[in-house]
Amino acid sequence: MSIQRPTLTELTDVVQRLGLEVTTPLLHEYAQILEAVWQAYDRLDGISTAPPALLYPRGSGQVPEKNLYNAWYVRTDIQGATTGKLAGKRVALKDNICLAGVPMMNGASTLQGYVPDIDATVATRVLDAAGQILGKAHCEFYCMSGSSHTNATGAVHNPRNPGHSTGGSSSGCAALIAAGEVDLGIGTDQGGSVRIPAAYSGIYGMKPTHGLIPYTGIMPIEMTLDHAGIMSANIADNALLLEVLAGADGLDPRQDRVVPTEAYTQALSRGCAGLRIGVVQEGFGHANSEADVDAAVRRAAALFQGLGARVEDISIPLHALGQAIWTPIAVEGITQLMRGYNYGSNWKGLYVESLMSAQQNWQSKAGQFPHDLKICLMAGEYAYASFGGQYYAKAQNAARQLRAAYDQHLQDFDVLIMPTVPLKAPKLPPIDASASDWVQRAVEMNANTAPFDVTGHPALSIPCGIAAGLPVGMMLVAREYNEATLYRIAHAFEQHIDWESLIS
Question: I need a labelling partner for 118 at 20 to 30 A (CA). Which of 13, 97, 240, 313 fits?
């Protein structure tokens, strides 16, 4: 098969976009020289890169007739192996995770109609472990919002209080777990998108160490921020799913060649006696912090003393700048990755070619983007063009200082604690909300969550109380690859304290 050759007019446009100086006679000569390049493309086009055969039969799924909280995108029923760790467990996948033959829209009207031709590694591992995938859960438009109002089909409602946000961007997974429709959800987290909905919805959300779970076959946002994470109704299921998902797959450049894993469920019975807990002062008292949220987390943190842990207040001043470090990485990184059709270049790993094709002409549909995505892209485009990526680079360099600040305290403490988010689940904005209100609701909650996407530390949100009838989330942070300690302390809290009785 031959690829389409550029016309001289198209080559002239390329020259102008690149700022090259090429005369008309020279352009004609260049066009002839380029023929050798296009012939290589022709030969490559003949090489088969067909996806692997699917091991587990499935249908294409369907939009459910009953979708009380608008949490499902597509319902299906894919049964995995006959035996395994996840036997009997019902799992939902966030709708930015590829599931072959099942539609995927990533919350975006611009991607409707796309059907992946591969299973993401996390989907394969669930099925190999005998899990049952019940479908794809709605998420926010391109996973860009920390609230649950930006999906192209409408808002995802919080089962604990419909009309309120369930949190984002893994909004559908949180709603389905809170409603009891599934046991487990696999979400993604670049600024808090697993932990935020966990906190708003009263469930458990683990963002593991960066790269612990392979991201292969998941639509990326920014590779240094991309985390796949686990959402569940209890800690034991969360640890069990991490045992299944963790480890290198040889295809994800976010992972080292050897990724340390362990039997996380074995940590559950160890209790938290003797553990040292640092309550990070800079995680409280943000400009938009709600007093009852801060009070609920402080009260819950103090309860660990009765479980045998040592609890102390500590100060990490750089945490207050964590969101500022995250912002250029997020806005510039997202913009540049989208310009590379959501994959970019200069890395080895599995590229989902069908997804790249579906995203190729996204700019022609960008008028459909919600306010928060438009604002992000405008900021990223301006900053990158004006400063040549220097602020992205400065933020990545500053990220090492931020990581070192946390690590210094994690030498003396096993776990750091702070509110997952500074506020309770707010009311969903109306569809005709002003741009300012729409964007504020999408980005108002990640001051504590975003820094740990930058540093890669494992962070777990657990429910720790009720305020004004809504759940409050407490975030636990540990050293890299020390997820077992987070499960250990969270399980002790879960087993000994009824969080729903802790009412503010």
Answer: 240
For residue range 137-149, list pLDDT tens digits in order.
999 999 999 999 9
Residue 307 CB-density burial (10 A; 0-12 exposed, 13-18 middle, 19+ buried): middle
Secondary structure letter of residue 464 according to DSSP? E
Radius of gyration in angstroms for the set of CA atoms belonging to the chain, rounded to a whole number: 23
Residue 155's H or E segment, with its range, is none
CB 197 within 8 A of CB 171: yes
What is the arithmetic mean of pLDDT over 428-433? 95
- CB burial of residue 353 (10 Å; 0-12, 13-18, 19+): middle
pTM for this prediction: 0.95
Peptide bond into 315 cis (omega under 30): no
Structure tokens at 186: 């696999």
Q: Which domains does the chain have, with CATH numbers?
A: 72-501 (3.90.1300.10)
- Please give the Cα distance from 390 to 382 (Å, whole number): 12
DSSP 8-state class, residue 145: -
**Active-site annotation, residues:** 94, 169, 193
Over residues 441-455, mean pLDDT:
98
